[in-house]
Amino acid sequence: MNAPDSSSTPLEVHDLTVAYHKKPVLYGIDLQVPEGSLIGIIGPNGAGKSTFIKAVMGLLPVSSGWVKIFGKSYRENCHRVGYMPQRESVDWDFPVSVMDVVLMGRYGRLRLAQRPTKQDREIARNCLEKVKMLPFANRQIGNLSGGQQQRVFLARALAQESDLYLMDEPFVGVDAATEAAIIALLRELKSRGKTLLVVHHDLASAKEYFDKLILLNMRLVAFGDTDEVFTPEILQTTYGGRLTILSEVAQTLSTTP
Amino acid sequence: MRRLLLPLLLFGCVFLVPEVAHAVRISELTDSTMMDRAVRFFTFRDASLRNALIGSMLLGICCGLMGTFLVVRKLALMGDALSHAVLPGVALGFLWNMAKDPLAIFIGATIAGLLGAGTIQLIRNTTRHKEDAALGFVLASFFGVGICLFTMIQNVPGGNKSGLDKFMFGQAASLGRGDVWLLAVIAVLAVGTVAIFYKEYTITSFDAGFARSLGMPVQIFHYSLMLLLAFAIVSSLQAVGVVLVSAMLVIPAAAAFMLTDRLGIMLLLAAIFGLCSGAVGAFFSFVGRNLPTGPFMVLAAAAVFAIALFFGPRHGIVSRWWRQRSRSARVQRENTLKAIYHVLEGNEFRSEHVSLRELAERRRETLEDVQRQLTAVRRTGFVTLFSDAVTFTPSGWQRACEIVRNHRLWELYLTNAAHIAADHVHEDAEKIEHILGEDAVRQLEKRLNYARRDPHGKLIPGIEDISLGSIPQPADRATGFGPAPH
Ligand SMILES: Nc1ncnc2c1ncn2[C@@H]1O[C@H](COP(=O)(O)OP(=O)(O)OP(=O)(O)O)[C@@H](O)[C@H]1O
Ligand SMILES: [Mg+2]
User: Fold this and answer.
1) Under an 8 A CB cutoff, do B202 and A100 touch?
2) Does B467 lie in the same domain as B397?
3) Which among A160, A231, B165, B295 is least buried, having the fewest CB atoms inside 10 angstroms?
């Protein structure tokens, strides 16, 4: 467990259990993610994919277990993690421009009360350029299509210049061309030694996009190279039939005081 | 540092104005006519009036700033709940030593406010209820307790109870020097905090989850904002009243929201609107002999809101209507230009002049109608109008060519690229021709290999014809405007 190179393991999760109102939605997840890989997280709706990502970042209280980012706690290494939340997580009527949002990706590197510098703006502009959104830089974010909003979020994550990226459904609501452009971007990040965990819904493309897959359904069903875990049996266990006993037990746990 | 200038200036205005000795309380003023009182207001002769005015303006700033965060966080009702929740605190602050001591009341009210905020949070976290139920519960129950305590105070003998009733609907004239000081301190605190931590408050309001993932202490920013909000409410109570503070929080900010889509500008506008509403409220309350101030402030704020609603440059109803109107007027003019072009084309460009009769026939309209339209077009400098004929000016020629080109290009594009039947494309082109930009035209031309004929065999004016800028000569000239070569 305490391998000497643990500081080069981007993400290590040990026996992670997460509960909402005492009702567990993730049980005992154990993971060790190697550096420089593009990893898909797949599982049915409500499997706990978003929950897993949030728990890794400490956004949710954890019932048991621990998470290490490059060998340290999340708090200590949060500047090495980039996050792209689900699009629905924010109010798009909020009075900020596209540029403002992308600049938020730089905030983690700024001190308290420090304003973004010229260099930060330059980086933000480059990231917008990469997702082909530069012409929209001064638009209010609500005037964008869903796919464009998604690209703004991606640009913000890119602006974080992190080593480990956690992305929640970056491909939702984007057209095929944009999806291809995004996956090219992610692959480029990977080739530069970054590690990416991407929640994904489309099984057909998952096989082609990712080196490794995390299959989740309330627990870790499988984690490994795509060719090894993308098998009918494992997919069946992940998606087929609810895990009736597990969810029943969870239900009782939440009703007993 | 530049950001701190505004509060400092305000501060200066408040306390450097020379003090007038033996100032009377506003209620004791004897000026009889409204005019006299208005004059008195604008000469700032007595200190109590100055206190009222400056206090109202300061509270407007505080409420505008805090209200902006409530509005963008969709927490507008939070202001309402908190302002009602402070009432028991006011009563307890008074009971402390049976006097209207600003500090005791401030502390009592702040504690009650925070207790209310805490209760809301508690209900939300531990029950299945969403925010709205929690807000409703806290608002009503705390307000109820407050009313009971107030009734009790009225029935207890002794103590100086004057001015306590002002907490309901507000009376700026009852602001003392201490109250104004308190307001000033809180205004500086609010402006300073928001200016210094603008970045942090923006990101935690917009995307709290992301902010936390960056390691920011989101909770601290949330609670500091709620604390500032409670301060703003409590310090404003005496001038606006419990019932209407929330309006001063929400209305200026909501008006600002309609005028801009940048948070920084919205904060500034909301503060300005709040300040103006405060001043107007104080003025009317004074001129109308101690009428309650709160309602006037709120009315002033509502007037600002109505103006923003109707005349806001982007989202205003009147502005939208006006834009719509001017757009349809432009379309109308451009259609007239196009009709002139068509007549010229029908005559194979043999003459520069188009008679009004021909034009009327072409458009299937009366001579009067055509005349009226041409007069409108002439105002834009596109045509020269004679008694019974009309010619293009160079700019009119250019515009007409563009419109016809846009129309025909679009028809060609729809038939060639989108495979729509040639007799279906006219209607669509009628609309598109007015809005096609130069870039789109370049792309279309390229895509269509610079074709010269539209699906109906008519000639498409090209860029070289348009930039010619002069009236084409009869068919034999080599500009491409002759009859179609067979
Ligand atoms: N705020 C919450 N309070 C209570 N339960 C929640 C909350 N958020 C999620 N859950 C529950 O946790 C479980 C996992 O949710 P999660 O959002 O992680 O699923 P997901 O895998 O991301 O699903 P999707 O594919 O729909 O995004 C679900 O059963 C859901 O009902
Ligand atoms: Mg999800």
Assistant:
1) yes
2) yes
3) A231
Assigned domain for B435 exists: yes
pLDDT attached to residue A238: 83
Evaluate: CB of A49 within 6 angstroms of ligand 1: yes
Phi and psi angles of residue B347, each rounded to the nearest 5 degrees, phi first? -85, 10
Residue of minimum CA distance from atom 31 in ligand 1: A46
State pLDDT tens for residues A22-72. 888 999 999 999 999 999 999 988 899 999 999 999 999 899 999 999 999
Please indicate, yes or no, if residue B11 is contained in any of the structural domains.
yes
Does residue B294 share a domain with residue B401?
Answer: no
Give me the count of residues in chain A.
257
- How many CB pairs (< 8 A) connect A and B? 75
In a domain, B442, yes or no: yes
Centre of ligand 1 to C-alpha A66, Å, is 20
Q: What is the pTM of this model?
A: 0.78
- Across the interface, do A112 and B197 touch by the CB < 8 Å criterion? yes
What is the pLDDT, as a whole number, of residue A166? 96
- If one counts the domains in chain B, the total is 2
Claim to verify: residue B355 and residue B297 sit in the same structural domain: no
Contact residues on chain B for A111, CB-CB shorter than 8 A:
none
Query: Which residues of chain B make contact with A81, given a CB cutoff of 8 A?
Result: 213
Are B286 and B327 within one domain?
no
Residue-wise pLDDT for B245-256, tens only, equals: 999 999 999 999
Q: Any chain B CB within 8 A of the CB of A83?
A: yes
Ligand nearest to the CA of A86: 2
A87 lines ligand 1 (CB under 6 A): no
Query: Can you tell me the mean pLDDT for A199-221?
Result: 90
ipTM over 0.95: no
Residues B73 and B154 in one domain: yes
pLDDT of residue A254: 61
Residues B299 and B345 in one domain: no
The answer to whether the Cβ–Cβ distance between B210 and A100 falls below 8 Å is: no
Domain containing residue B399: CATH number: 1.10.10.10
Residues in chain A closer than 8 A to B206 (CB atoms): 90-91, 94, 96, 101, 104
- Chain A residue with the nearest C-alpha to that of B196: A113
Q: Tell me the residue range of the domain where B157 lies.
A: 2-311
Report the pLDDT averaged over residues A111-126.
Answer: 94
Do B163 and B303 fall within a single domain? yes
Q: Which segments in chain B show pLDDT lower than 70? A: 1-32, 159-160, 163, 463-486
Q: What is the mean pLDDT of residues A13-20?
A: 92
Query: With a 6 A CB cut-off, is A200 part of the ligand 1 pocket?
Result: no
Output the average pLDDT for chain A: 88
Judged against a pLDDT cut of 90, whether residue A250 lies above it is answered with: no
B91 and B121 together in one domain: yes
Cross-strand bridge partners of residue A214: A41, A223
Nearest residue of chain A to residue B128 (CA atoms): A21
